[in-house]
Amino acid sequence: MNLQSMTGFARAVAEHDGASIAWEVKSVNGKSVEVRLRLPQGFERLEPAVRQTLQKRFSRGNFQATLTVGRAAGQQVQPVVNEVFLRDLAGLAKRLQDQFGVAPATADGLLSLRGVLDIPESNETEEVRAALDAAILSALETALTGLEQARQTEGEALRSLLSGHIDAIEALTRKAEADPSREPAAIRERIAEQVRLLMDASANLDAVRLHMEAAFLATKADIREEIDRLKTHVVSARVLLANGGAIGRKLDFLAQEFNRESNTLCSKSNAATVTAIGLELKAVVDQFREQVQNLE
User: Fold this and answer.
1) How far is CA 78 from CA 17, 73, 81, 117, 121, in A?
2) Of 55, 128, 179, 247, which is the most buried if we count CB atoms within 10 A?
3) Average pLDDT of span 72-77
4) Where does the Endoribonuclease YicC-like C-terminal domain start and stop, copy by copy (predicted)?
């Protein structure tokens, strides 16, 4: 299956019975499907259907959809101005200006007041309205198909980037696993050196007990479990990428696990070389997680 980014934009236009229809839809990152609509006055009735359509096609993202409907000259509804009320308001505004020095009223300001301008209901029949609504929703489907394609194009680019990050995580994991500091001979030498230093500092210490304590600490510092878990997470991430679909949340969980293991590897490390590998691993994991957060 294809991967989808949560970022995309699309536009679709259509004509219906002399009316022009245009949809613009865009999406950005989001934890779930959140929709903001901008519909012309009189088309608020379409909001439930538009939201339902978006929620059926996508599983994550913040969406903004804008509808524009242009009517032919003969179809446009003419606004009605309450001229008596407008004249009274204009007179009141003039008196306020003369008496109190307030700013003069503007035409658009007066017309925006409730009761001055009225847009009457259209005389179109239920059948005509239903046909227009169907054409608008059909244009929306076209726009969402374009948005889906845009998100998939970016998703496939992200697949390549994420695959590269996973390869890097695997390579660093194997590098830590093969580090010479993890060889039994190196561990024995390190324990012996620690015991010698302590014995030199105080001749009263029990050498056998010191060897036991040093061996115990060395065992606690072993990174075998972290390496095994990192390898397992690498396999899981590759399976998810290969299967595709809406895997953003699952990959984000794996990114957190990668981060946890790399942190533990650094904290348990008793060799500068392994610490350096752990820090490099953390940097790659941060890049991986940043990209994952763009996926649906």
Assistant:
1) 19, 10, 10, 11, 10
2) 247
3) 56
4) 184-296
Q: How far apart are CA 142 and CA 148, in angstroms?
A: 10
What pLDDT, on the 0 to 100 scale, is given for residue 210?
46
Predicted TM-score (pTM) of this structure:
0.69
What residue type is assigned to position 125 of the chain? T
The CA–CA distances, whole Å, from 237 to 162, 173, 244, 280 equal: 9, 15, 11, 19
Residue at token pair 């007041």: 113
3-state class (DSSP) for residue 82 = coil
Report the alpha-carbon distance of residue 291 to residue 210 in Å, rounded.
48
Q: Measuring CA to CA, which residue among 140, 123, 104 is closest to residue 14? A: 140
pLDDT at residue 256 is higher than 90: yes
Please answer whether residues 83 and 110 qualify as being in contact, where contact means their C-beta atoms are separated by less than 8 angstroms. Answer: no
**Percent helix, strand, coil in the chain (nearest 5)?**
65, 15, 25
* Rounded CA separation 6/206 (Å): 63
